[in-house]
Write a structure and sequence with these properties.
homodimer, about 10% strand, DNA-binding
Chain lengths: ~160, ~160
DNA sequence: GTCAAATGGTTGAACGCTCAATGAGAATGT
DNA sequence: ACATTCTCATTGAGCGTTCAACCATTTGAC
């Protein structure tokens, strides 16, 4: 280990980090400013809206959204306070809970979606050629695949 | 506005978001676990270490690192508590301050660097072909350029 | 020279995320 | 039956970021 980065690798890495910061900041700010919800809440609402009966088990929702149980639990509590989500006991497993998207939650999502989509277009998609979008897709899936299910200290991880 | 995303655009966007989350989590976790510093602190130390006399004005440092004065001010306060950075009045402008990298700060950076570089390699660079690295570089610089200096509600931003 | 505006930077509160600890129910073994 | 262990989920403390308010100094206009 401890092999340094070449100039070209460093350029790539720094550009990557900078891109992430700009894009994610743009997306998050727009959602907060126009719809008063962080991108993570939006993702939760989207996942629920696409699920059968607009509900999912907490752990499945956590996986689908980012993998942290605790974060999801906190987030659902806050969404519950806003009336956008509610919790339902799981009848077949006494430990389990469903998060359910309420009508108000769906309305909030539908209110937020157009502005968000527009922001994704203007910040990212419109700036790239079709070929670049394809390149980005390939790189992103490669990396996501590479890192998915990476536990701390696993071979691919660090 | 309010034009929906095509399937292909949606695939690209979702892959992008997933990639970011995985990569950034991997990088940040490694630094915290092995060197007890979040990636944002690491970036600050790097910027200072590359500056003349290992010092920069607060606002220049903020620009170079991410653009938020307030975040930087808080971060420098915490780095100061660790003895990694110190503040110096700017002689030519009574309002200004320099953040200065101390010897301890440089040592902390040098201790953290090899593990961090290794993590960048293993999480990202090693998983991509040379061509993909080049593609990623081009996309990243295109987007960073596109979004740099984007104020809220500016034409390219949202 | 004086006053208003702009600039450089800090502060505190509110919020979201992480981590470790916890609890309750289900599965497993004997 | 019973104890062990595993799984699903919640909780609270600690930390970092953001936002708005603020202070001090400098700049510019008159």
């Amino acid at each position: 280990m401890a092999q340094w980065l070449t100039d070209s690798e460093q350029r790539t890495w720094r550009a990557f980090v900078e891109m992430n910061r700009y894009v994610m900041t743009a997306i998050d700010s727009q959602l907060i400013r126009d719809s008063d919800m962080p991108a993570t809440y939006y993702a939760i609402l989207v996942a629920l809206s696409e699920a059968p009966d607009r509900r999912m088990r907490m752990s499945a929702l956590a996986d689908s959204v980012d993998g942290s149980q605790s974060r999801l639990s906190h987030a659902v509590s806050r969404l519950e306070q806003r009336g956008w989500v509610s919790r339902q006991r799981c009848p077949s497993d006494g430990r389990g809970w469903f998060a359910v998207l309420t009508d108000e939650g769906l309305a909030a999502l539908e209110g937020a979606a157009p502005g968000h989509v527009d922001c994704v277009r203007r910040s990212v998609l419109d700036a790239l050629t079709e070929q670049q979008q394809e390149d980005l897709y390939k790189v992103a899936t490669t990396l996501a695949e590479h890192l998915r299910g990476t536990q701390p200290d696993s071979p691919a991880g660090c």
